[in-house]
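User: Okay, second chain of the day. Same drill as before: sequence in, structure tokens out.
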Amino acid sequence: MEQEKILIQKNTTTQDEILRAALNLFVRKGYFNTSLTEIAHAAQLSKTQEIYLYFDCKQQLATALYNSIVDSLSVSIDEIRRRNKKASEQLHSLVDLLFKLTEEAPEALRFLFEINTSEFLSPDAKPYLQTPAVNKMLKMIQLGINNGEIRSLAPMLIYSYFFGIINTTLQLMLNGTLDKKTESYQSQVWLVAWNAIAKK
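Assistant: Same drill. Structure tokens below.
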């Protein structure tokens, strides 16, 4: 039994290494320009075939990576919603999280923002705007509309106003156009985004 546990742990670690290597390469070179051989080399595997112990193909690997990032974001949003009652507090905490991720996990955000998911997601897979993570963001917005904090418009329209400002700023930071640390922009970006949707 103990041996099984060790084997599972080892496999999980190897799988994580493959995902980490793929993330860095996809972000740097793009999905189509990255080969499984390069991923295997970056993950320090002795043979490319070792990837097939965990993933059937590059498409499945990219999909697993995408799902992992979106699921992690969704879990974080659950925690934010549990801790904060007002929509403004929830959205502010989410903005804080996204800015923190820009510093601590920039590749994950670049993957979400820059990689064309239609290159690897199957036609029946949910696009980003239909994932549980975005649905939870829309619930935050609906809460704000219901309690009079946010203007009474279609939640997806509010989402586009608010996260359009946030995500564009994050992308400018990730690609180096804005070269200062995140704290230089965080509070002013929050104010601009919030004022775009707040009920006056």
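The chain is about 70% helix and 0% strand.

User: Thanks, on to the next one.
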